[in-house]
Amino acid sequence: MLSNTSAADCEREISDLCHALGSCAGAPARLRLLPAPAAGRPGWRDGAAVSRVLFPVDTDWVGELTFSTSGGAELSEAGRRAVQALLPLAGSLLSAAQERRRLKASLDWLRGHNAALRQRTRHDPLTGLLNGRSFHAMARLMSRQPLSGRVSALMLIDADDFKGVNDRFGHPAGDRYLKVLAGCLRELCRPEDPVGRIGGDEFAIFLHDMPANRDWHEVMTARLGDRLRAQVQHSVAADCEASVSVGIAVCEVPRGDYVALLREADAALYAAKAGVPRG
Question: What pLDDT is recorded for position 3?
Fold first, then answer.
């Protein structure tokens, strides 16, 4: 793998070579790459205050070695021959540096591409929350972690009468509704709490290391309802009613059977929704 150290070493070698070339020529030297089509033919070019030589590096690039002669110093024939002898080394170093840049650009692109793939694989594309598979995998692991005088909880959240929202305001409005709900859930939780969209209008939160009393459950549910109503009326429609049903399963000890915990939360959600009027 390309490392920052190897790239720095290559730049240092080029700098050292410039010093050596400058010593041979008796004038300060600068080395750089130029695009081959625009650089011109290889060979020496002498100007009023500059002498330079172009030499091939690869099919796409040409090396340019420039000597400053503004102080009146001129390159002797011996100096030119010494420089000419070192040009293959200069070409190799420039080629290696360019290859490192190409590899780094490719690695950066691959890292970004892989990160995007992981994002699409693990997250719901509409809301950006964990998808069902990723959420359950993370919640399952967290449910097995030890507790000390605290509890863990699995919360299932379902949007009430979401079909009515779609039927009345249209599917784009329904998508905005789900995004608002996802944002409210994320704001309500700690950064380390997994939050997922596990179905069409069903969401889930896993809370680890919570107080043993149940007051936080009622407080969170009330805050969620207040935030959701305010934000839905702002982002979807002023007359769009918004509410959720919540089912929760609390465990006071590590749970090896996550499926049973999920079943308890689902039963609690079903009971909560049983009292919700349908539009």
Answer: 45
Whole-angstrom Cα Rg for the chain: 33
Note the pTM of the prediction, 2 decimals.
0.61
Between CA 105 and CA 277 the distance in angstroms is: 57
Mean model confidence pLDDT for the chain: 84
The C-alpha angle 272, 188, 251, rounded to 5 degrees, equals 55
Structure confidence by residue, pLDDT tens digits, 95-146? 887 778 778 888 887 887 776 666 677 899 999 999 999 999 999 999 888 8
pLDDT in tens, 53-109: 888 887 788 888 888 877 666 777 888 888 888 888 888 888 887 778 778 888 887
Cβ neighbourhood burial of 84 (10 Å; 0-12, 13-18, 19+): middle
Contact between 18 and 31 under an 8 Å Cβ cutoff? The reply is yes
Q: Which string of DSSP letters, residue by residue, matches the chain?
A: ---HHHHHHHHHHHHHHHHHHHHHHTS-EEEEEEEHHHH-SSEEEE-SSEEEEEEE-SSSEEEEEEEE-TTS----HHHHHHHHHHHHHHHHHHHHHHHHHHHHHHHHHHHHHHHHHHHHHHB-TTT-SEEHHHHHHHHHHHHTS--SS-EEEEEEEEETTHHHHHHHH-HHHHHHHHHHHHHHHHHHS-TTS-EEE-SSSEEEEEEEEE-SSSHHHHHHHHHHHHHHHHHHHHHT-TT----EEEEEEEESS--S-HHHHHHHHHHHHHHHHHTSPP-
Average pLDDT rounded to a whole number, residues 18-33: 82
Which among 217, 252, 263 is positioned nearest to 145, based on CA atoms?
252
